Every structure is written in structure tokens, then in C-alpha cells.
């Protein structure tokens, strides 16, 4: 692992610029998660004592930006000693800057807002199966894989193994292969309620009074010597509750919620 620089992150972005972007976006988005809607966080205690590098968070995905923005709030709050809460936004003055998230290149290159948000720590990748709304079939860019490994060597990384905001989509094997090779500590995150509260991009509030949830689970137990990528991926998808069994429960709750509007928030 290369020696860390105290002035710039793993990709040469000045820390002062990352701090500024996280602070501004944090102030703008704060009332979305602790005002109009109340973000409920559980399991923050599972992050205590983690090393500063080679920690990979795997999560389901519901919007382009709101999920990640909420995660920044949660991580910065935890970084300042506040567990399971974002009620004290003073944490924005001391953000966790060695934090990166994997995002689709085409998403992060659309519009000025996306490009600015990319400064906060995006590691962009080209999807191998989809591009600009069309199915494609292309090889993995190994330079992009090396960038994710570089981010892990320098901090914490969040990735979305489904590579889409569609619920219960198939997990991508590339995530499991990366885990097999890099052997990070893997922390599953289960989120819910974001697609009800926000539009698909996660920029516009659809309704208020919702309670998006974010659950940090215990590190996955992975036998790196014996388990293959397929087995690792199965563990991940179960941990983030995106397997067919959970889909049946989800469909049942959705139908029940339609009949009883206040039964689920």
C-alpha cells in the first residue's frame, strides 16, 4: 500500500476541497434526513473498532444520490462518536474524508451537480451489462478495478453489488471477485424507504413524513481460503436482503401497505 498523503486523497483530490463539498452538500441535504423525513439508523456499533482501511460496505440501492448522501451523514456522525443518530450536524465540520463510493460513470458525468458530488469520493466504473439505457456486453476495465482496490488501500468504500436501483436485481459477480482477491472486512448495509421518500435520482422529495432506514449489520464471516465468489455473492445478497425469499415478503408488505396506507412507513 502506498504511503498516504496528508493533503490529498487516494486519487489526488485535495482534502480541503472534499471537506468543503461534503460540508455544503451536508447542509443542503440535512433537513431531508432529519426534518422533512427522519432517517432511522441502527447497528452503528458494528462499525466501532474497524480499521481505517480495507473496509468494504455492500448495500442495496434505491436512488442515485439520496442513499449515498444519507450514508455520508451516517459515516460522518459515527466518525465523531454519535451512534445511530444524525441529530447533531456539527459532525459536518469533521467529515470522514477517506470514504469512497463506487458509482456508474455515465451517472456521475451527467450535469454539474453530479460532477461536483463526484469530488466527495466517487470511484466511477463503466457498467459491463448496461449503458445509456441499453443492454451491452463489454469487458471489465481492469484500471477501474485497480481504482477500487486503491480506494480500499486508503480508506472505506461503499459499493452496490446490484449495480442498479431496481429492487431484487441480480447481484454482479465482479463485487464478489474483488472481495475474494482483496479480502476486506465486509459490512452489509440494508436500506429501505428511500424510493418512497425521493424520486429516482434522489434529488426531489416525493413525500414528507417518511422514515428511511439504514441498518449496519455485523461483518460477514467469509472463509477466503475455501469460499468461491459465487458463495460470497450469495452471502452478500442474503445479508442485504435482496434474495427471492425477501422479495416474497416485500411483495406481501407492499400489498398490505396498499390496503392499509399507514401500516408501513
Largest sheet: 7 strands, mixed
Overall helicity: 25-40%
Based on secondary structure, the structural category is alpha/beta
**CATH architecture, please?**
3-Layer(aba) Sandwich
Percent of residues in beta strands: 5-15%
Straight-line N-to-C gap: 44 Å
Q: At the fourth CATH level, what is the homologous superfamily?
A: Glycerol-3-phosphate (1)-acyltransferase
CATH level-3 fold name: Glycerol-3-phosphate (1)-acyltransferase
Overall structural domain count: 1
Coarse morphology: globular
Show unreliable segments. 258-265
Overall pLDDT score: 88
Rg, rounded, reads: 18 Å
Give a count of the beta strands, DSSP E runs of length 2 or more.
Answer: 9
Strands in their spatial order, largest beta sheet: 1-9-8-2-7-3-4
Order of helices and strands: HEEHEHHEEEHEHEHEHH
By DSSP (H or I, 4+ residues per run), the number of helices equals 9
CATH class: Alpha Beta
Please give a quick description of this structure.
The chain is an alpha/beta fold. The protein has nine helices and nine strands. Strands 1-9-8-2-7-3-4 form a seven-stranded mixed sheet, sandwiched between helices. A two-stranded antiparallel sheet has the order 5-6.
